[in-house]
Amino acid sequence: MTAVSTQTKAPWFSAARVKTLPAAIAPVLVGTMIAYPNVIGWVFAATILATLMIQIGTNFANDYFDHMNGVDNDDRLGPARATAQGWITPDVMKRGFIIAFGLSFLIGLSLVYRGGPPILLIGLLSILFGILYTGGPKPLGYLGFGDILVFIFFGPVAVAGTVYVHTLSFSWIAVLFGCGVGAVTNAILIVNNKRDIDNDRVSGKMTMVARFGLKFANIEYIAMWVIAILAPIIAAIISNQYILMIGAIGTVVSLPLVYKFTKTEGAHLNPMLGQTAGGLMFYSAFCCLSIFLVSFLAAQ
Q1: How far is Cα 292 from Cα 183, in angstroms, rounded to an integer?
Q2: Is pLDDT at 77 greater than 90 in this prediction?
Q3: Which of 191, 112, 92, 84 is closest to 147 using CA atoms?
Q4: How far is the C-alpha of 236 from the C-alpha of 232, rounded, in Å?
Q5: What are phi and psi of 8, to 5 degrees?
Q6: Mean pLDDT in residue range 40-50
Q7: CA angle 88, 93, 96 (to 5 degrees)
Q8: In terms of pTM, does the model score above 0.90?
Q9: Residue 7 has pLDDT above 60, yes or no
Q10: What is the pLDDT of residues 186-229, one digit of tens each?
Q11: How far is CA 205 from the centre of its chain?
Q12: Which residues contact 188 (CB under 8 A, 6 or more apart)?
């Protein structure tokens, strides 16, 4: 049975999957810190809001399409989904993700005014893949492309895009830190996919974990944290700013997470979604600290 099947008083809150929203906030914070001192207040606010609306829209679309595709059934082990439980009708949920994506587009227009075609392209692709992840005749998430999309769009694209819209310049340091952020964000998805491996296989949702198995899930989860360790170290070496290595300290939180992940299966993985999201924010905080210290010391 689904882990939570009783009526909720906050169905839209549940459908938004609030515990995973740090995935939208983290890359913007890291990118903004890299852009310092050329940070523009309204650009920061608009970027946060637009990114949050894209992720919420993606979560609503996932709730809708997984229900329509029969993936969110009674055998699912994860938290109950609003459409599948009947808390929100399919038509209303469909309007919900259209509105969320529409708001992200409208907010994003101000960023396009600032950053031009590159920002427009990032925004449109983010919305498109947010729908195609679980929607369309061949959902990308069902074909195993979810890990790649999450890594790229919640990592290098989001961090470097944030830097660009503030500074109007490209930064390889942003790409490297973005790889670290994207890797830990993908670790959240890996938790979800390992938990749902059996039901996904039966439903035809062939994530990478569903294709390659539980051992692959464990290796992939560990690999994401290794990438997170290496990203600030490589950035430090390339830039000759060795204080950036402080960012790697943020991965200390991965030690208990990795141990627990490799020993846990099924519904017992549900708490690890929020815990890994918390690990993402902890890691991002250390990345921001290392970047701030570089700027602070340069100003002395």
Answers
A1: 22
A2: no
A3: 191
A4: 6
A5: -105, 150
A6: 97
A7: 125
A8: yes
A9: no
A10: 999 999 999 999 988 988 889 999 999 999 999 999 999 999 99
A11: 19
A12: 20, 23, 273, 276, 277, 280
Smallest CA-to-CA distance from 192 within 146, 123, 148 is with: 146
Residues whose CB falls within 8 Å of the CB of residue 9, separated by 6 or more in sequence, listed in order? none
Nearest to 180 by CA among 159, 164, 209, 207: 159
Query: Which token pair is 13?
Result: 């809150």
| pLDDT tens sequence across 169-186 | 999 999 999 999 999 999
Whether residue 260 is predicted with pLDDT greater than 60 in this model: the reply is: yes
Q: Side chain identity at 74, as an amino acid letter?
A: D
Average pLDDT, the chain: 92
Does 91 score more than 70 pLDDT?
A: yes
Which tokens hold the place of 33?
A: 């810190």
CATH code of the region 11-299: 1.10.600
Per-residue pLDDT averaged across 95-107, rounded?
97
Q: 19-28 burial string, b = 16+ CB within 10 Å, else e?
A: bbbbbbbbbb
CA 119 to each of CA 138, 163, 293: distance values in angstroms, whole numbers, following the listed order: 27, 11, 28
